[in-house]
Amino acid sequence: MNTEEIEVVRQRLLQYFQDLGFSVNPHLKPSKSSKEFLRALHSKRRLEQLQANRKFLEHNFPLIREYYKEVEINIEDIKLELRFVDASKQDDDYILFKWWNLVWWSLPYERSIGRKISYLVFDKYHNLPFGLVVLQSPVMYCRARDEYLGITKEKRDYWINQSLYGQRVGALPPYNQIFGGKLVSMSLVSAEIREEYHRKYHGRKTLKQKRVLPSNLLFTYTLSAYGRSKIYEDLYFRGEPLSVFAGYSRGAGTFHISDSMYQELLRILGENVKKSVFVSPSRKMKLLAKAFRVIGLPGFEYHNIKRGVYIFPHVYNLREIISSNEAPRWKSIKFKELYQEWMENYLLPKIKTHVIKDSLNDILQRADYPFV
């Protein structure tokens, strides 16, 4: 692109960010800080992702309707299990997982990248998905995470490649009404996840440097959407905390960049990254940062929405492993144990009703689903 074409892209980007709800002075900053405003800020990219997946959503709507034809949950009858999702099978679990991953959250859908584990928390008794989790390769640098754990630049890739990032963590309707998010968050420390990670990645070489790294899953972590989050805090198992608040992120990310704009920025760099080509989260951020510098908008990879950073250790001595190379002391808590803890200490003492009723139409209206 020549100078005039780049200036056209620059002005179009500035207008796009302002239309989303950012102020530019001289960097990006949300015009307001309320949760309602921040949810609206995500709406344009969310709708873009729904439109991109419209064929899948509409084709599978009859299956969703069949599962949700009668939504009446008896609290005492809930029976939960973890179901790992395999996209290659294209079975009911995969369809339920992807459908709700697209529809339910205010944050836009993002295709998971790198090493990944996806699973449903499933209510066997009522034959309904209770919640879902998407774990993927983390960004290589997160200041709050790294400072809390004592991770240095020299060993960062070694330790970070023994963790996973919770890109999507939460309960689905109607279970989100009964502290379901707490239980789904607790599942981030379950032994089954660590076992699945070892099964999938033991002996596997990394794509970029062709190294075989330890297949230990030392910790998972996630970012709350809007500051600190109740579903990640005050989580305990037999008196021991399950999560740690490590601080706030610096507000960098890619949700505010549409897919079409991302491709245009790549063309400015002369890059041709196809959807089928692996691009790590860190690599995508570097490409965006470079493109923004080229067009005279340095730092626009920062949307400056601070998110809470929560770490879920799978070991009792996580910081000692990193600082002193101690042998891991694994927690090894089974999901069934976490579910029993949630039922006895979070659900039954606090719930005021024993039956929850809902309808698919009401659920989709609350989700602002556009294709009904």
What this model shows, in words?
By secondary structure, the protein is an alpha+beta fold. The protein has a domain at about 55-250 and about 310-365. About 40% of the residues lie in helices and about 15% in strands. It has helices at about 5-20, 35-50, 55-60, 60-65, 90-105, 145-150, 155-160, 180-185, 190-200, 260-270, 280-295, 320-325, 335-345, 360-365, and strands at about 20-25, 30, 70-75, 80-85, 115-125, 130-135, 165-170, 220-225, 235, 240, 245-250, 310-315, 355-360.
Shape annotation:
globular
Helix content: 25-40%
Q: What distance lies between the first and last C-alpha atoms, to the nearest angstrom?
A: 42 Å
Spatial strand order of the main sheet: 4-5-6-7-8-12-11
**Whole-number average pLDDT?**
90
The largest sheet is: 7 strands, mixed
- What is the N-to-C succession of helices and strands? HEEHHHEEHEEHHEHHEEEEHHEHHEH
Low-confidence stretches: none
Structural class: alpha+beta
User: How many β-strand runs?
Assistant: 13
Count of DSSP-assigned helices: 14
Give the C-alpha Rg: 21 Å
Range of strand content: 15-25%
